Amino acid sequence: MPVKELVVISGKGGTGKTSLAASLVELAREDGPVVAVDADVDASNLALILDAEPGEVNDFVGGELAFVTPELCTGCGECVAACRFAAVSMTDGKALVDPLACEGCRVCRAVCPAGAVTMRHSVTGSWRVDEGEGFHLIHAELGIARDNSGKLVSRVRREARDVAERTGAKLIIIDGPPGIGCPVHAAITGTDLALIVTEPSPSGMHDLERALDTCAHFDRPAVVVVNKADLAPALTEETADLCRRRGAFLLGLLPFDRRVPGLLARGLSLVHLDTFRGLLVELWETLRGRLNG
C-alpha cells in the first residue's frame, strides 16, 4: 500500500488546526507507525504537543547571497547601480552587500568588471527529525528575516517521505501553515486529502472559502471540520451550507471547551479530554476510510 499524505490547513490562524493535527497523529499511531510534519516553518509548534525525543539539527540552504571580496573591489559602483533591491552600498570606497536585502539574482556579479563578486550558499533555517512513541516528527525553523519558507516546507516533506520509507509508515500527517500563501501551496501539492479546520465566524467562513479555492486550484480533495461549533450555531449552519454549495464534505463539528488551553499547556492533545475523545475517534475513522478508499 502506498504512503498516504493528509494535510491539515485552516485558511487563518487560531482555528485549532495544530491541536487537531496532533490528536490525529495520536489516534493514527494506534494503527501503525506515523510520520508527522509541522509545515508551519515560520512558527513551528506541533512539537509542543507531541512528546518526542529531539533529533540532530540540520542546516537548510535556501539559496545564494552575493559577497564582495574587498581586496578585488575597485569601488566603481557598477553593482550599486545595477542592484534593483538596494542590497549593495558603498562603504569606505568598497561595495558591501546587505544579506537581508540580497535576493541572490547575480546581477552584481554579472556587471562587476573586477570579478570581485561571488555567490555563497545561504543557510536560512534548520530542520530536524524527532522520534516519539509510534511516530516521527519532522519540523523546521526559518531564520529571522529569511524567506523561501515554501522551499523549507518542501524539504521537510521530502524528509518525511524518506522517514516513512525507512520506518514502514503508511501515513504522513502534515500540520500545514495558516493562510493560503506560498508555504501552504508547498504543503498541499501532492497530498491525498486536505482537512480544513474552520470556526463559526465571518472571518472563518471567508478564509474557509479561500482555503477551498486553494485546494481546488491544486486539484486536491478537501473535507471540513468546524471547531468551536457551539459558540455560534447560526454561523455553523451557514458554514455547513457553504460546504454543501462547494461540494466539500463536512467531516464533523467539535465543541468549545475552556479546558483546552490548560490541556495544551501541559503538552497533551485533545484526545485526553472526554469531551473530544469519542468525536475524534469518529472523525479519524471517517478520514481513514476516505484516505484508503
TrEMBL record:
Q: Where is the 4Fe-4S ferredoxin-type domain?
A: 64-92, 93-122
Report keywords, A-Z.
Iron, Iron-sulfur, Metal-binding
Please name the GO terms that the record assigns under molecular function: iron-sulfur cluster binding; metal ion binding
PANTHER family documented for this protein:
4FE-4S CLUSTER CONTAINING PARA FAMILY ATPASE PROTEIN (PTHR43534:SF1), MIND SUPERFAMILY P-LOOP ATPASE CONTAINING AN INSERTED FERREDOXIN DOMAIN (PTHR43534)
Q: What is this protein called?
A: 4Fe-4S ferredoxin-type domain-containing protein
Q: What is the lineage of its organism?
A: Bacteria, Candidatus Coatesiibacteriota
